[in-house]
Design brief:
The chain is an alpha/beta fold. 58% of the residues lie in helices and 10% in strands. Helix 3 packs antiparallel against helix 15. The chain is elongated, with a radius of gyration of 35 Å.
Length: 662
């Protein structure tokens, strides 16, 4: 798929037949955790078809022995009935036609109460839907059908819905977990609307594959097998052609529709990718609405959305066309076989080989064979849409997952012994741009390390290697002598609190945002860190204090308040390593001074790493690492670096002082 659908990572979307089979095998793996529910559903499905076998024979009894008043000999001898009807026939031997009719109707009523007209009815959970993949996916989330009505059908439908929901929930949870843990280099390339589309609208197709390749064929095999068995046993000597007509329909449907499989996959992929692009436009436009409005870009944004929406509708229309083309071929193939089947049935009645009572029996069996063979013949073609969706799901699950540890979670050494080392570290982005080269330095607990340098020097890239957001392409980073690549990622991140330059706040309450760092935090603990970060006064001034909502992304707060709340959250984490990316950029001098004093008091056993441009922040550091063009130019204490007449850091300071004086 081209980048016109915003895909920067998932660009190779072509699926060969072997790829489809691999996707199907992987999708079926999600059935195993639900094996008990699956077994219950399969058993109930077999029971429904078994209970449905006698239904048309009671109609034969009503017509032949009720309306036509034919006598019933003991054991039904000489009559065309299967063995499982012998018991009922024996119970009505010698009764008058009206009594036979009453018994047959009563039995039918009881069976209908439990299963309805099993096999020829369909109880579905589907709601109204559109032609696009997004609205159709909503039905797949709670997809379910039953070949029966009545009490058993309702139970079967509930089991079907529950199975669909559990499989989809499992896939969605796993997909969201993988997406939330993908490397930042990948996350920054793909837009979030695409990820939302994959979680909400692609994931439900896995359950569709599980049904289509297991329960649906099981139902078809049971239905066809049971009816062919009864048809052969009772009418094998009278109308054997019916058996061959039904079987031939299956083969010809597969032969006629299989060439459309690749086309169906390609169109479905385009429909889903264009739907993702539309979601991207909505997400981007609303997320950046302030910038769009302030720069007069509303008309352009609207045009971009309109173009994406039109393309999505166009691809959806193509998908509808393909589906209906397959439907047309299948219907017309079966029209020929249906005509032949009806000829056999009515010719037998005219010749006197069949009675009027045989009409509902044979018609029901043949309709089941016709419908089932049509469905069976379309299984492959119908699953091409699900295959396209499954490919998108599994691509996101597999694409550059975070590096796993080669050893189990290792407890860190006491804070006082903590040591962080960069050893000839380099980093190159996937597009080939080099951000860092030959970075080497050491920092220990109790220190405040300032990473300084001009914009684009690689400061944030360097800091993001510590919690393994990024991974070195050269050299290594060690913590207490252990390569970070060998440390469990979750355990490492519990030891690191990272406060980003761009404030990452939830659309929730103040307390909910703080408790991301420490879910069990008490109000007293939150008050303490907010006091240190200079946030307590404005939090207390809010209508509901810590339970006040802060708007979308903290929109109800000023930039400085967002920054102080983010710092308070980092302090609440209580981690032995605290990383602050431009922590005082939006703070006034008084608040900045109070914050830095608090950090110096509370950081005696903590390694604090600060990325900063402000001299007032940098001069508080114990050690400075000055970067330029991805390399360490100078390192040392503020006094040592200022003592170098032609040093890079001194030039940096002189420029700032000169700008301030001006």
């Amino acid at each position: 798929m081209t980048e016109r659908y915003h895909d920067r990572l998932d660009v190779r979307t072509t699926l060969a037949t072997g790829d489809v089979f691999s996707l199907f095998r992987r999708a079926l793996g999600y059935l195993w955790p639900q094996r008990r529910l699956f077994a219950a559903r399969a058993g109930l499905m077999v029971l429904i078809y078994a209970l449905g076998l006698p239904l048309p024979w009671f109609l034969k009894i009503l017509i032949d022995h009720g309306v036509m008043q034919q006598p019933i000999p003991p054991g039904g001898e000489g009559l065309l009935y299967p063995f499982f009807m012998t018991g009922f026939l024996d119970s009505v031997v010698g009764l008058d036609p009206l009594a036979v009719t009453l018994y047959a109707l009563t039995t039918l009523a009881v069976v209908f109460l439990f299963v309805g007209y099993s096999g020829n009815t369909m109880l579905e959970a589907n709601l109204a839907e559109g032609a696009d993949v997004a609205t159709r996916s909503e039905n797949k989330i709670s997809a379910g059908f039953s070949a029966a009505h009545g009490l058993v059908g309702l139970l079967d439908l509930c089991l079907a819905i529950r199975l669909s929901q559990r499989i989809t929930h499992h896939v969605r949870g796993e997909l969201f977990s993988r997406l939330s843990r993908q490397p930042l280099t990948s996350a920054n390339l793909q837009r979030s609307g695409d990820a939302i589309f994959r979680v909400l609208h692609d994931a439900p197709s896995i359950a569709g594959i599980c049904y289509a390749l297991t329960l649906n064929p099981l139902a078809m095999v049971v239905s066809v097998g049971a009816n062919l068995w009864v048809l052969t046993a009772v009418y094998g000597g009278v109308a054997p052609e019916l058996v061959w007509i039904g079987l031939s329909a299956v083969g010809l449907t597969l032969l006629a529709t299989s060439p459309l499989a690749r086309w169906a996959r390609r169109v479905s992929q385009a429909s889903r990718a264009s739907g993702s692009a539309t979601t991207d436009e909505v997400e981007e436009g609303l997320k950046n609405v302030a910038a769009v409005q302030s720069l007069g870009g509303s008309d352009r944004q609207r045009e971009q959305f309109a173009a994406a929406s039109r393309e999505s509708f166009r691809q959806s229309l193509l998908l509808v066309w393909v589906v209906n083309a397959v439907e047309w071929i299948a219907e017309h193939v079966h029209l020929v076989f249906a005509t032949a089947g009806f000829w056999v049935i009515f010719a037998g009645i005219i010749r006197g080989e069949l009675t009027l009572g045989d009409i509902p029996v044979v018609l029901r069996m043949y309709s089941l064979l016709y419908e089932t063979s049509m469905q069976f013949g379309r299984i492959w073609i119908d699953q091409q849409d699900n295959a396209a969706a499954a490919r998108r799901v599994f691509f996101s699950m597999d694409h550059e997952p975070e590096q796993s540890a080669s050893r189990p979670a290792t407890p860190l050494l006491p804070d006082s012994a903590l040591s962080l080392r960069f050893e000839e570290v380099g980093f190159r982005y996937p597009d080939g741009r080099r951000a860092l080269a030959g970075i080497s330095f050491e920092a220990c607990a109790g220190q405040t390390l300032a990473i300084v340098g001009p914009s684009g020097a690689g400061k944030t890239t360097l800091a993001q290697m510590i919690p393994k957001f990024l991974h070195p392409t050269d050299g290594r980073v060690t913590l207490n002598g252990v390569d970070l690549a060998e440390l469990d990622t979750a355990a490492l991140r519990r030891a690191v609190a990272y406060v980003f330059q761009e404030h990452q706040l939830l659309t929730d309450t103040v307390a909910a945002n703080l408790r991301i760092a420490k879910p069990e935090a008490t109000v007293a603990e939150m008050e303490s860190v907010c006091r240190l970060a200079g946030a307590l006064d404005f939090v207390r001034a809010m209508p509901e204090g810590f339970e006040s909502r802060i708007g979308r992304g903290g929109g109800a707060l000023s930039t400085g308040q967002k920054q102080r709340l983010s710092i308070a959250r980092g302090l609440l984490r209580g981690a032995p390593i605290l990383i602050l990316d431009e922590p005082t950029a939006a703070l006034d001098p008084e608040t900045e001074r109070a914050l830095l004093d608090a950090l110096s008091v509370t950081g005696r056993d903590r390694l604090t790493i600060v990325i900063a441009h402000r001299l007032s922040t940098i001069e508080r550091a114990d050690r400075i690492v000055y970067l330029d063009q991805g390399r360490v130019v100078e390192a040392g204490s503020p006094a040592e670096l200022l003592a170098k007449p032609d040093g890079a850091y001194k030039r940096f300071v002189d420029l700032q002082l000169g700008a301030s004086a001006a």
